[in-house]
Predict the 3D structure of the following.
Amino acid sequence: MTTLTHAGILTRRELAHWVRQPMAPIFNLAFSLMLLAMFGLLFGGAIEVPGGDDYIGFLLPGLLAMVMMFGIQGTMLGMAEDAKRGISDRFRSLPMSGAAVAMGRSGADMLSSALELVVLVGGGLLMGWRIDATPLEAIAGVALLLWLRYTLVWLGIFLGLTFRGESAMVAVQVLVWPIGFASNALVAPETMPAWLGAITEWNPISATATAVRQLFGNATGITGGWLADASIWLAIGWPALIIAIFLPLSARAYRRLGD
Amino acid sequence: MSTPLAISATGIHKRYGGTAALDGFDLEVLAGTIHGLLGPNGAGKSTAVGVLTTLRRADAGQASIAGFDVRRQAGEVRRRIGLVGQAHAVDDILGGRQNLVMFGRLAGLAPAAARARADELLERFELIEAAAKPVSQYSGGMRRRLDIAVALLLSPAVLFLDEPTTGLDPRGRAEVWLAVGEVAQRGAAVLLTTQYLDEADRMAGRISVLRRGAVIAEGTPRELKQSIGGDRVAVAPNDPADLAATAAAMQSAIGAEAHVDEETRTVTVPALDGTAAVLAVLRAVDAAGIEIADLELRRPTLDDVFLTLTKEAA
């Protein structure tokens, strides 16, 4: 109970940051909208979706999955900053549980990502994207996106606690791009060279993007292969694997911060 | 049973990779006293603070805070300590009051109690006017005061200050000294690590000198100074030819052997009773008809102690 109270206090701390420095979250949302406009309007006309559907129907769920993955930078930065500034040590010197720190961080990050989902969906609707599914399916799609994001919070916590240097931050900021692009989030693997298409099918982002497309009733850009059949299970399983690995690693890294 | 020591540590060892940060570290601090932990960079001061505040785990040895073991009763220890680390462990984006209320809530205070305590501490540390401003706009001294105020939220039995004045201007240092002195007056034990000898001399009732992870000397500042010879009276005669006569006069006045330094042309004798010795020397030298160019009472500084001790141990 106290752990939950503490987590709530720490989540509110992040929200207080947004109020004090609103440009950071606004810029973050604007960046997501810019991606949507760039691919939806600028490149969209030149991109062909196998099966012949509208690109915006294919793009939006993919972009949502990619943005969930990009959120990892915010998690990592927040953890690294607190560790560097001694705020983590202060938390650790207080009679409070380390789980509260992680829960507070994930609470704020989940709110931030949920806001991004809302804004991107709004932008997508303006650009002609439509959902063609029952409310239950739509909710399941959103749940899969947030599930991916939640498990990546733990990867972000681990990275932020373990690699605190500026260069590590830059490395992650650069690496999210090839990881995001080497998926079916923006382009159908069937249009890629065979070897690259095969790699992208194994990207966890591809699994979530495909599952969400199916649940939303949007074009999957897939005309054959294993991913279309297994996507929902993979969209549950990949994140489960991520959290199974990085939750214990994060807890260990937090306990060992002083050593 | 007597009241437990505020801080007790015996035989603490802590290694990082191949190097020993703490190598048999011992410490005893009584409630209501300020204890200085003095040592050069890398002597193990911060590691010692880390072990005593439960942030770092010792490889060997035993340590307790107010009778509670830092390893087995970490929760109890955390309820009784306040930590001011080397980094400014406050949220820069939030205001001073927001910081105090947040850390107060995290420390277990109820919302109303946390707000009341925040206001009390803001007033005590003269931060009322800046309470709503983001901490990033605070001066170094103000930030440190806020840092100390956060550490005092739970009225800790032991306050740890890890180089609290490093990087502060003289005014900021004076502000911190004032705040820390007040904390000890209220009955808390304070462990203060510092590289500044004047700071330890001024603040601490007792001092432990740390070198390579072990305490090489412990005592009051006065004891430490006396351990390397205490006060001396030095006289420089006007005419170097009078050195021998001066030494003879001083020796008979004090009743202790005089030391003649040909190079600096001075004669020194121990001055166990301080200024009285100065007067006796002055009379004797004057009676001998020796003209004096310079006379001074030399008190060893902690710098002398520190340099002597760390040289000996090398």
Q: What stands out?
A: Residues 98-126 of chain A form the longest helix (29 residues). Chain A touches chain B at residues 2, 5-6, 9-10, 13, 16-17, 20-21, 84-87, 89-96, 100, 257-259 (CB under 8 Å).
